[in-house]
Amino acid sequence: MIDHRNPPGLFARLYNPTGWALFFASLAVFCVLVPILNQVLPADSLLHMSDYWVALIGKIMCYAILALAMDMVWGYTGILSLGHGIFFALGGYAFGMYLMREIGHDGVYHSDLPDFMVFLDWKAYPWYWKGTGSFLYAMILVLLAPAALALFFGFFAFRSRIKGVYFSIITQALTVALMLLFFRNETGFGGNNGFTDFKRILGHPIATPGTRMVLFVTTALTMLGMLLVLRYVVTSKFGRILMAIRDAESRLMFTGYNPLLYKLAIWTFSAMIAGLAGALYVPQVGIINPGEMAPGNSIEIAIWTAVGGRGTLIGALIGAFIVNGAKSWFTQAFPDYWLYFLGALFVLTTLFLPKGVMGLIDKARTRS
Amino acid sequence: MSADSKSPAVDVGGSSTFGHAAPPAGELDTSHGVVLYLEDVTVSFDGFKALNALSFSVDVGELRCIIGPNGAGKTTMMDVITGKTRPQLGKVFFGQTMDLTKMREAEIAQAGIGRKFQKPTVFEHHSVFENLELAIKADRGIWHSLFGKLNGEQLDRIDEILETVQLQEFADRRAGLLSHGQKQWLEIGMLLSQDPKLLLLDEPVAGMTDHETIRTAELLKTLEGKHSIVVVEHDMGFVDSIAKKVTVLHEGSVLSEGTMDKVQNDEKVIEVYLGR
Amino acid sequence: MRHLLPALIGLAILVLCSPAQAFDQATATALSVGDSDTRIDALNKVIAAGDAAALPFLEKLIGDGVKTSGDKVFVVDGDKAVDPVTGQAAELPSDADDVVNSNRMRNEIGGAIAALKLSSPDRAVRLEAAQSLQSGDADESKLPLVKAAEGKEKDPQIRDMLGQVEANIELTSSDKSLRLAAVKMLAESSSPNVKEMLSTRLAPDGETDPEVKAAITAAIKAVDARLSRYALVGQIFTGVSLASILLLAALGLAITYGLMGIINMAHGELMMIGAYSTYVVQNLFRAYLPDAFQFYLVAALPVAFLVTAGVGMAIERLVLRHLYGRSLETLLATCGISLFLMQLVRTLFGAQNVGVENPEWMSGSVSLAASLVLPYNRIVIIGFSVAVLGFMWYLLTKTRLGLFVRAVTQNRTMARCVGVPTARIDTMAFGLGSGIAGLAGVALSQIGNVGPDLGQHYIVNCFMVVVLGGVGQLAGTVLASLGLGIVSKFLEGVTGAVIAEIMVLVFVVVFIQRRPQGLFAMTGRSAEA
User: Fold this and answer.
1) Which of A179, A193, B260, C104 is paired with C180 by a 20 to 30 Å CA distance?
2) How distant, in Å, are the alpha carbons of A125, A260, C207, C272, C350 from that of C451?
3) What ipTM was estimated for this complex?
């Protein structure tokens, strides 16, 4: 029996001791071990971790944060978004604007404006670029741009009670429309080529091993911090309401809750997390272009979450690492077979592994 | 191929979008002794009149049973009262002042109308306790849901309800694992924890064993007086065991109303039920 | 290219067996020797005689390919010389001189060539000539010639063009009444050229007479009105054409999604497979039945239908069957299938687009006015989409299969109870929807690129159509595709394609707000949700 009159403290509520041990172990690996292996050990050492691996894991951690955002809306609330790639890209673009301005006069044309604007023969920044030279403002924009879009779109969609696959398809349509918009040169985000050739971040050269490691550790801290925040959310009554929306929305409504508010809240929050992930992603991979917005990318996010196990948070992280790890291996070893593998993964996961890897782990644990 | 996957949204919602847009008339006013009042309510679907100028009222503290053949409009009437369906014509008032046709589902529920569905609907992935926690009368806002805690009074109330619906031992069991009858009771328990003025129960004993049915009848009788209750039921034995006043619906309007004896001997009712 | 060959053959026939054999040495001499005035006289005689045999010679003449020695005329080709009339090789005297053409002479010869071509029996030659007259500067001296040609001309398009040339000449005439008459005639036109022609007359160095000027202004207005009317018709046509494509693409989905409720994200890829089936059939015909190549499309229809229906039935049996009632999972699984199918096609046919040719009867266009040209392939596809719609309507409402499908989708349990083999009906219905996607693929192969990504362009729009039309409603699907097609083409004209697409999307979302059940839908007592 659980003693409901004396609920567990915050620490115990989030994870059990094993969970916390794993959490701190990961924290140590990402924030201490990796920096040592990469920065301190000499390059010819057996244990040295190459920059390639740091870059790859850094990138995958951004995807993992994105998967967490997806798990909140899909795994917990039952809203399958096929548009989270848009929020990710918007965050990336918002931060990319800052990085573009940090280039200063070091572009090909040595102009005040980014090269692509010079190329379009623009004489001044468009209004929406205003203030993006400030890091702080750019970070706010990273959160607000996806949030604003999510709020606007979500309000109309949820208010008209668009649910299930209808919602998914409409998010996909939104994705296509926005991608087309960003492909246009006139939109003011560099068209096809997007933003690239960044030089500095906060005054530091962006491509040095030191800066990269700072970005890596920041990403790791964000990922693990976000995990705790979201764990708090899902273990609160708010989280139980989200699951109630997923399982029996009308019951919740007739119990006196307004599902619209809750859906809108988690949808917008999730978009902000996705935007943050995008902002961490762009300086690490050094480019953002409308290709990131392709509908296929958004669908892939769902499969990361499904492979790991929906509605578990940890599953989202595991899924992002498994699928993206497999992707980078396949695209090097057997590039032609990656899409076969991915396609099969979609089908097999939904058919045979509805609870994902976490489901397997649970099963193994209960058996032993 | 579920119906759910095909329809974008089952019903059109009401006027105000957010539930907290202040219920029209604040507190429930039952100074005239009437808790629910329907007048000339008409709902038609593609020309078919599911409700046809339906008028009836329920007094405070009354336990009313509603019977009628399939398609008589019983569930549609429930939908209208709870804001799920908007009537084309007619008035629906909760107490003297609250116009239910202008409120959304969540507002209506907050105003004090609880509804049990025909098919037991509980949050299957939550424990029994968590189901009651969600239902218990408390702040329905986001902030509270994130940072609020149950107070002692609410915990007492939950314990009390667990006892009433005989689920004390199952408080931490996942609701999805309960038996059919237990789910029905949990749903009734959830309604009770909302502390509603008016309870709408759609076939509360469907699928229950005889023993469970008797228990449910006893439960409803203990609630009579504290809450106003409207029960829709097919099980005549059950209706007979609880009802003082029965309303018979037929083709969307009231065919007969009165004591069980009276309606059972009503020529029109016999005609509808037995046919001639 | 396809038109060039017959044109050349026509030209050759024309040159070889032209009935008027009046072109002789004397004429050739008169055309080549002497001062410009006498030569022009000779030229006018040739024109008056309508002597087509003179054409090759005149072309040589204007191309500086003619030499003279005394009265003897030679046509020079490289270092060989031939007799202009007989075409026999001739010895070029050492004192032969080049014929020198003044600019005036060149103009005259050019006009003469055009005039002669105008009386050619070959339509293509005449059309070309009329076009060159229209774009070049035809002066008053050509008026009789053009008038004569116009009188004889049977083809309405060429006659129109000639009329304009005539009017253009008259516009600059010194006779005011002639100019007024010309303006009046031009006001009846519907060609953008005419509008431009009239506008240039309004320039400061153009028309001076106020009465004629007013007439010109009025005429421009009239032409403008007609032009915008034609533009409207043109836009409606392209809208209907887009609508027919959307309809074809959405019809299959109306069965699998609308009726059965299966969300199939690989629907676009089924269309893609239909298009590739067409490609394969085309290649087979080219290799083994080149004589019947014209009809490869007819053979492609059943092939594409069967191939995609087979793929669809396999998908239903192997995957979807196990996911009924779990629509979000179905969505993901079919996304995976779509990736798989695209990669499969890349492996088999390469990642590049493949070429699918229109059969000849589908190429070309019908021209209703100078500014309104309707391509045959679009017209055929509009007709085809109506035919497929009819086929589907018939299947669903008049056959036993349709009866079963409707029964299963309305009440599966009941249908099973009365002995409908529900599992088999599911497979067949899904196969039917997939097959129709294949038919849509055949149509798409005729108007756009055929590549592995073909389906991706259509899938979102397909779903928009079905959602907008209301699920399970053929009439709704038709209306929605018409509406979406026409509206997006009109918007495209105003805002450009991207903004139009975004606006259409916003419109659909707003529409679903107002009417969540789509254009047509049953309302009913809501079952507990």
Assistant:
1) C104
2) 39, 42, 56, 7, 9
3) 0.88
CB atoms within 10 A of CB C114: 25
Greater confidence (C512 vs C97) lies with C97
Look at strands B198-202 and B113-116 and give their pairing.
parallel
Instruction: Return the CA Rg of chain B.
Output: 19
How many Cα atoms sit within 13 Å of C77 on the Cβ side? Answer: 11
Contact between C366 and C234 under an 8 Å Cβ cutoff? The reply is no
Average pLDDT (C172-193) is 77
Q: Residues with Cβ < 8 Å from C403, sequence gap 6 or more? A: none
Residue for token digits 């998967």? A67
Residue B9: closest C-alpha in chain C: C516
A&C contacts, CB < 8 Å: 116
Average pLDDT value for chain C: 81
From the number of C-beta atoms within 10 Å of its C-beta (0-12, 13-18, 19+), residue A127 rates as exposed
**Percentage helix, strand, coil for chain B under 3-state DSSP, each rounded to 5:** 35, 25, 40
Minimum-distance CB partner of B6 among C471, C524, C526: C471
Burial call C63-74: b when 16+ CB within 10 Å, e when fewer: eebbbbeeebbb
Query: What does the pLDDT average to over A1-10?
Result: 80
C127 closest CA partner among C158, C105, C101: C158
The answer for A 139-168 residues in CB contact with C (under 8 A) is 153, 156-157, 159-162, 164-166, 168
Q: Give the CA radius of gyration of chain C.
A: 32
**Rounded to an integer, what distance in angstroms lies between the CA atom of residue C129 and that of residue C131?**
5
Strands C89-90 and C80-82: antiparallel
CB contact under 8 A, C333 and A347: yes
Q: Residue B3 pLDDT more than 50?
A: no
| DSSP letter, residue A49 | P
Q: Which amino acid is at C214?
A: A
| Cβ contact C335–A177 (<8 Å) | no
In this structure, the strands spanning B228-232 and B198-202 are parallel
Q: Considering only residues B200 and C96, tell me which one the structure prediction assigns the higher pLDDT.
A: B200
Kindly tell me the sign of the dihedral angle through the C-alpha atoms of A37, A39, A40, A41.
positive
**Among partner residues B114, B123, B150, which is closest to A247 by beta-carbon distance?**
B123
pLDDT digits (tens, 9 = 90+) for C125-178: 788 777 777 766 566 667 777 777 777 777 777 787 777 777 777 777 777 787
Name the residue among C303, C258, C253 with its Cα closest to residue C276. C303
Task: Bin B61: left if φ > 0, else alpha if -120 < ψ < 50, else beta.
Answer: left
Q: Is B8 within 8 Å of C261 when comparing Cβ atoms? A: no
Of the partner residues B13, B115, B148, the one whose CB lies closest to the CB of residue A254: B115
Interface contact A4-B171, CB threshold 8 A: yes
Q: Which 3 state secondary structure label does DSSP give C105?
A: helix
Q: Which residues of A touch B135 (CB under 8 A)?
A: 255
| Chain C partners within 8 Å of A184 (Cβ) | 498
Closest CA to C329 of C344, C338, C319: C319
Q: How confident is the model at residue C231 (pLDDT cuts 50, 70, 90)?
A: confident
Residues 6 or more apart whose CB falls under 8 angstroms from that of A274 comprise A65, A66, A69, A70, A84, A87, A88, A91, A146
Q: Do B5 and A164 touch (CB under 8 A)?
A: yes
Counting residues of chain C whose pLDDT is more than 90, the rounded percentage is 18
Residues in chain A closer than 8 A to B13 (CB atoms): 159-161
Reduced to 3 states, what is the DSSP secondary structure of residue B40? strand
Dist. CA B232–CA C509, nearest whole Å: 38
For A323-336, give one letter per residue: b (16+ CB within 10 A) or e.
Answer: bbeebeebeeeeee
Question: pTM for this one?
Answer: 0.79
